[in-house]
Design goal:
The chain is α+β, with helices and mostly antiparallel strands. Helix content is about 40%, strand content about 25%. Strand 7 (about 125-130) and strand 8 (about 130-135) form a beta hairpin. It has helices at about 145-170, 180-195, 205-260; strands at about 10-15, 25-30, 45-55, 55-65, 85-90, 100-105, 125-130, 130-135. It is elongated.
Length: about 260
């Protein structure tokens, strides 16, 4: 890789991990030949701390070179004399084995012969100086999922819908539903929000999320149904007591009057 990066607009590379847990990497780019990596470097280098997300499988990094500044932010990186690239992981991530591949500098549209092979579920980290975005190669809804995950999703959606209807019915009876409504928020997070995030939009995470959503919605619905049935039984009992009260109030008077007249 050349030391002169002028004329290029992106640094691209790929990282493969066979680890199930999520981790992050820090990227450092040095432009001073006298500067050595470490705390004494006085932050006179570019640093993207913990901004490269690493998940199980292939991960792709894109660093935009248009406006990189040193970590101290007191000057722009000299793109004409790049000396060193360093990738670091936090100590807590170890043991960690990563496979790095296809480091290249690109300007404009990348030719197919150098482009990496990608899958819809692959993670992509795009770094633009201080800012970064993590996404997947495909749109979240286009990332394929296993058949059992799809079945779990449908079950969770069905349980959430049933809980919503049960909440409406309970409210008409005057039953407090605030604790059940919180599970509707959980369902919204698990079914619609988290699957938009690259680190949740995978089969293992979705199995756990959808199973949990279905479980809490089902349990909450049954609790509300039990309360509703208790209310129905109480109302029936109150109605019965009211009828008995009316009988005891009026019929004994008539009975006594009939008894006196017959004597």
């Amino acid at each position: 890789m050349p030391r002169d990066w002028r004329g290029y607009d992106r640094l691209l590379f790929d990282i493969y991990s066979d680890r199930q847990a999520i981790s992050t990497l820090t990227l450092q780019i040095y432009d001073d030949p006298e500067m050595k990596p470490g705390p004494k470097a006085a932050r006179g280098y570019y640093e993207a701390r913990n901004k490269i997300l690493i998940q199980n499988g292939w991960n792709h990094a894109e660093i935009r070179l248009g406006a990189l500044h040193t970590a101290s932010y007191d000057r722009a990186l000299n793109m004409g004399r790049i000396q060193r690239i360093t990738l670091l992981a936090e100590r807590g991530a170890f043991p960690l084995t990563l496979y790095l591949d296809n480091f290249r500098l690109v300007s404009g549209e990348e030719p197919r012969k150098t482009a990496s092979r990608v899958q819809p579920q692959d993670t992509v980290t795009v770094i633009d100086d201080r800012f970064f975005v993590v996404r997947q190669v495909a749109h979240p809804e286009d990332v394929p999922e296993a058949a059992d995950v799809t079945a779990l999703r449908r079950d969770a959606e069905n349980e959430a819908e049933l809980l919503a209807k049960t909440i409406q019915a309970a409210q008409t009876q005057g039953i407090e539903t605030i604790y059940a409504e919180r599970h509707m928020v959980t369902a919204d997070l698990g079914l619609r929000i988290r699957p938009l995030l690259a680190w949740f939009n995978n089969d293992d995470s979705k199995r756990a999320m959808f199973s949990y959503v279905a479980s809490v919605c089902r349990e909450s619905r049954r609790e509300l149904e039990d309360k509703s049935q208790d209310i129905d039984r109480l109302q029936a009992l109150l109605l019965l007591l009211s009828i008995v009260h009316e009988i005891l109030t009026f019929f004994p008077v008539n009975f006594c009057a009939d008894a006196r007249s017959s004597s």
